[in-house]
Specification:
about 140 residues; alpha+beta; Lipocalin; 10-stranded antiparallel beta sheet; 2 helices; 10 strands
């Protein structure tokens, strides 16, 4: 038996285990998205304080859910350092007397990039009517 063969295998195994443990500990790009956010601006229009539109990002599940006026929604998402793509959004369809719920759902489905700064989240979309969504972090 060649002892060097076993030593070589042990070293390779150790390097693989070390590499995997390092990869699992590296921060997720989506970590900045994590948490609860409240929409403050939909396109060019500020959202009144009494209108509740929220987004809760869960990077461990790659999921987003929230409230849109009087409806609930959820979806999955993928993100990189500054890009974000949502899967089709599923929501309840109650009539709320406010068309912001439909505007928001359409815009969030067309998300393309995001930026997190302090306690603010800005999502740029491909929606010509609501090309920017601005949120503040909810504690």
């Amino acid at each position: 038996m060649n002892i060097f063969k076993y030593i070589k295998k042990a070293i390779v195994f150790s390097l693989v285990v070390f590499g995997l443990s390092w990869a699992l500990q590296s921060p997720s790009f989506a970590a900045g998205l994590e948490g609860n956010w409240k929409l403050t601006t939909l396109g060019d229009s500020p959202v009144p304080a009494e209108v509740q539109i929220t987004a809760n990002f869960d990077p461990s599940e790659h999921g987003i859910n929230g409230r849109v006026v009087c409806n609930q929604y959820f979806s999955g998402y993928e993100s990189t350092e500054d890009a974000i793509t949502l899967r089709p959004v599923i929501s309840t369809r109650a009539y709320c007397g406010d068309d912001r719920d439909y505007q928001y759902i359409r815009a969030i489905e067309l998300s393309k990039s995001y930026k997190v700064s302090d306690q603010e989240l800005t999502i740029n979309t491909n929606d010509p009517k609501a090309n920017v969504l601005k949120f503040v972090k909810v504690q």
